[in-house]
Design brief:
The chain is built from 5 helices and 4 strands; from the N terminus they run βαβαββααα. With about 160 residues, the protein is an alpha/beta fold. It has a 4-stranded mixed β-sheet with strand order 1-2-4-3.
Length: about 160
């Protein structure tokens, strides 16, 4: 996996290597064979602009993810018949450190844990999960909790 972390915010102090490890673990556990992922940690004004520009929502939010490309990973070049060894994705996860810090403060949670929740949530969207219905949201929450627990974080949405 190719994972880049860009940190343009100052609200939460984050271990970028840990974030990369979490990205790789989530993708591996979700059956992704290859990926190029960009994680952008920004402030509220920056994510507000992304939200307005790309989703036509005029407010800041916690996390936005963009699946830029997806497809199979060939098992061997020129194989006949073509074989696949898994799914490949390219995507971006944009996270507001300011929102994470503010929410964590309100709920009494560590800001880094809140940020990791946003990261896992965004990655699950890239992997194909949706949270548009109650059933989808419940399924996605279970996967978030599972991944967070593997990262040593108690997934407690009400902190």
């Amino acid at each position: 996996f190719d994972v880049e972390v860009s940190d343009e915010q100052q609200a939460v102090s984050l271990d970028h290597d840990r974030l990369r490890r979490i990205v790789c673990a989530v993708l591996h556990e979700e059956g992704i064979a290859a990926a190029q992922i960009s994680v952008a940690l920004v402030d509220d004004p920056a994510i507000h602009e992304v939200n307005r520009t790309f989703l036509q929502h005029d407010y800041p939010t916690d996390v936005i993810s963009f699946l830029l490309e997806e497809g199979p990973v060939p098992l061997a070049v020129g194989a006949d018949p073509p074989a696949e060894r898994g799914r490949r994705i390219e995507g971006e996860v944009v996270i507001s450190g300011e929102t994470a810090a503010r929410t964590a403060g309100e709920l009494g949670c560590p800001a880094e844990d809140e940020t990791v929740l946003y990261l896992v949530h965004g990655l699950l969207h890239l992997c194909g999960y949706d949270d548009g219905t109650d059933a989808d949201r419940a399924r996605m929450r279970l996967r978030e909790q599972w991944h967070l627990q593997k990262s040593g974080i108690t997934a407690n949405y009400d902190c």
